[in-house]
Amino acid sequence: MNQPLLPEIARDDAMTTQDYAYRRLRNAIMVGALKPGTSLTFRGLAGQLGLSATPVREALRRLSSENAIEVLENRRLQVPRMTPGRFEELVQLRIVLETHAATRAFPYISDKAIDGLTALDDRMDAALARGDLDGLTRMNQEFHKRLYGLNPDAAAIPLIESLWLQLGPFQRQVIEDIDSIAGADHHKEMLAALRERALQELCAAIRADVHDGSIRAGRAMLHGADPA
């Protein structure tokens, strides 16, 4: 069985083989390099990672506990398929947690932080223009994480990342149809709200970003029509 290619990640000398296997597989799932329903094998993944089966097995165990990998009958491994009910649960949780995280980060907003987010948004525009969906996905997550991380006690970020992880493979399928997510640039709306120090407008822009970037197009893919 041919395994899909896993995007490279930075690896330093302090990273153990188990951490490397976990982080590289986690990144591949989060950016959608592994599509829903993809079957995985220990041998195939170990060969691609250049590792023995032991760290790969441990990485897959951790990812299974995070609901990012399914263990099926006969110990077969698979990237979970998306269902309408699971999708609705995940995206509604995204809205609740991300508006909460933005609200908690709001008192720590600074002009310097806004400038950094603006520069990152410009790089996202460039990635979109050249069709770099991997880069676009990573930078989109970085944009949100950097905003929420302004709160020094940002306990919600690991929970939000768990949702991104579970949505990643399906979300990538959604954004491959660029026309389906075309429209207002809600990151620009978020930046404008940050400059105005307008919390309600910031949360409204986050809700709109999730709706237009995930919910509207995701529902259309799952149901075969645009429910808007």
TrEMBL record:
<dbReference type="Pfam" id="PF07729">
    <property type="entry name" value="FCD"/>
</dbReference>
<keyword id="KW-0805">Transcription regulation</keyword>
<feature type="domain" description="HTH gntR-type">
    <location>
        <begin position="15"/>
        <end position="82"/>
    </location>
</feature>
<dbReference type="Pfam" id="PF00392">
    <property type="entry name" value="GntR"/>
</dbReference>
<dbReference type="InterPro" id="IPR036390">
    <property type="entry name" value="WH_DNA-bd_sf"/>
</dbReference>
<dbReference type="InterPro" id="IPR008920">
    <property type="entry name" value="TF_FadR/GntR_C"/>
</dbReference>
<protein>
    <submittedName>
        <fullName>GntR family transcriptional regulator</fullName>
    </submittedName>
</protein>
<dbReference type="InterPro" id="IPR000524">
    <property type="entry name" value="Tscrpt_reg_HTH_GntR"/>
</dbReference>
<dbReference type="GO" id="GO:0003677">
    <property type="term" value="F:DNA binding"/>
</dbReference>
<dbReference type="InterPro" id="IPR036388">
    <property type="entry name" value="WH-like_DNA-bd_sf"/>
</dbReference>
<keyword id="KW-0238">DNA-binding</keyword>
<dbReference type="GO" id="GO:0003700">
    <property type="term" value="F:DNA-binding transcription factor activity"/>
</dbReference>
<dbReference type="InterPro" id="IPR011711">
    <property type="entry name" value="GntR_C"/>
</dbReference>
<keyword id="KW-0804">Transcription</keyword>
